[in-house]
Amino acid sequence: MTAMIRCAWAKNDLSIKYHDCEWGVPVHDDQILFEFLILEGAQAGLSWDTILAKRPNYRSAFSEWDVEKVAGFSEKRIAKLLENPGIVRNRLKISSAINNARRFIEVQSAAGSFAEFLWDFVNGEPIVNKWKTMRQVPASTKLSDRISAELRSRGFSFVGTTIIYAYMQAVGLVNDHITSCVRHSHASTAKRRRNY
Q1: What's the predicted TM-score (pTM) here?
Q2: Looking at the annotation, which residues are catalytic?
């Protein structure tokens, strides 16, 4: 029997489930878009496996990703989060999450939804790349540069071009599954399934 081919980074149970059910699948739900914006920022300088392992703790710590609640977090709540071993206890990243929640709401008010704002950058359709190896997959692109610059101009933080390209992959604006991967031809049309 032939082994199932996946992108090389999907190596353990958690990353395989994430790869097979979520990565590269288009997201049009603002709550999930907010979740991944915060998780990708939290991942800066760390491995994605670390964030996946902490994901259930993040969900609980950040009010089930209720953007309105997160936007209202106080200094007392920040202090509590800094004591939470289940998340990345970095004051800058936690403060950024709260700031980004406030900026996220501003974008929703201006654009109708964050999804409308974000998907407008790709004219509503995911970019499906045809990489043969993971080495070909870029860390950033001109488009991630543009989205990053736009978000920074709106006051978002932890949204550098590399973080934003990883975000684009996570929420399906771009399908970077390698062509031999079992998910390449399905990710862009699949229904997203959470794996936690």
Answers
A1: 0.94
A2: 18, 40, 48
